[in-house]
Amino acid sequence: MSRPVLLAIFLTVAATRVVYAAGEAAGCPADSEAVAAAAAVVADGAFTRPEAGVPAAKRTTCGLYATAQDVYDMVKDAPDKVLFIDVRTPAELQFIGMPTLVDANVPVMLETSPPQWDDVNSTFKLAPNPKFVEGVDARLARKGLTRDDRVILICQGGVRAARAANLLTQAGYTKVYTTIDGFEGDPAPDGSHKGERIVNGWRNAGLPWTARLDRSKMFGLQ
């Protein structure tokens, strides 16, 4: 394909904010920078969902978003070129399960010690994991990847993954995707199942998951 044709295709894609991952030559560029670098784009088929359809609480600095199905396809397509991290707490994985394709659990938040109660949300409080970036770095190195390779994060419904993605971007990671519907999906907004997480997400999509944890993937046991 000639360079002029490639440029025309990219400009159309950029206008709709569907950005191909391999085109992120400078990591997470602004739209104008992305257009300026159009001639250098080499698409590898890994895309991001348009940010306009992503709730504000799930948006990230890097702006790379995927659905659970997208993530499954990306990981299956190039398992050795992607690091897939579940950022939920170990307790969540133990009682709810996790995707079988996840490389490791590196929680971005952990239960406080001693336990503290959150009156507003009627749950136990969580505190930032001070070793989150360090933990992802270790898993990245173990897989022979760098901070310029694709990293995909998944949490319950997409909010914590967004916070975790921003932490990694601040640390120098350049291609951090978030699973916008998460493992459990979004709560139903109305109807007899209002509030139940049955709308979307990894498990609701029928993608492979397990309730049997693999010790080698668990945080803090290595």
Give a description of the structure.
This protein is α/β, with parallel strands linked by helices. It folds into two domains: 1-44, no CATH class; 46-217, Oxidized Rhodanese, domain 1 (3-Layer(aba) Sandwich), CATH 3.40.250. The protein has six helices and eleven strands. The chain starts with a helix and ends in a 12-residue tail after the last strand.
Brief sketch in words of this structure:
The protein has 222 residues and is α/β, with parallel strands linked by helices. Helix content is 27%, strand content 15%.
Task: Tag the structure with descriptive keywords.
222 residues, alpha/beta, 2 domains, 11 strands, five-stranded parallel β-sheet, Oxidized Rhodanese, domain 1
Topology:
Blueprint: H1 3-15, H2 31-36, E1 64-66, H3 68-77, E2 82-86, H4 90-96, E3 98-99, E4 104-105, E5 109-111, E6 117-118, E7 123-124, E8 126-128, H5 132-142, E9 150-154, H6 159-170, E10 176-179, E11 209-210
Parallel strand pairs: 1-10, 2-4, 2-9, 9-10
Antiparallel strand pairs: 3-11, 5-8, 6-7
Count of helix runs: 6
Count of individual beta strands: 11
Principal-axis shape equals globular
- Give me the CATH superfamily of the largest domain: Rhodanese-like domain
Q: What's the alpha carbon Rg, rounded to whole Å? A: 18 Å
- The CATH class of the largest domain is identified as Alpha Beta
**How many domains?**
2
Q: Helical amount among residues, as a percent range?
A: 25-40%
Q: What would the average pLDDT be, to the nearest integer?
A: 83
Residue fraction in strands: 5-15%
Task: Detail the poorly predicted runs.
Answer: 1-26, 29-45
Judging by the overall fold, what is the CATH architecture of the largest domain?
3-Layer(aba) Sandwich
End-to-end distance: 47 Å
| SSE pattern, N- to C-terminal | HHEHEHEEEEEEHEHEE
Biggest sheet: strands side by side, in what order?
A: 1-10-9-2-4
CATH topology of the largest domain: Oxidized Rhodanese, domain 1
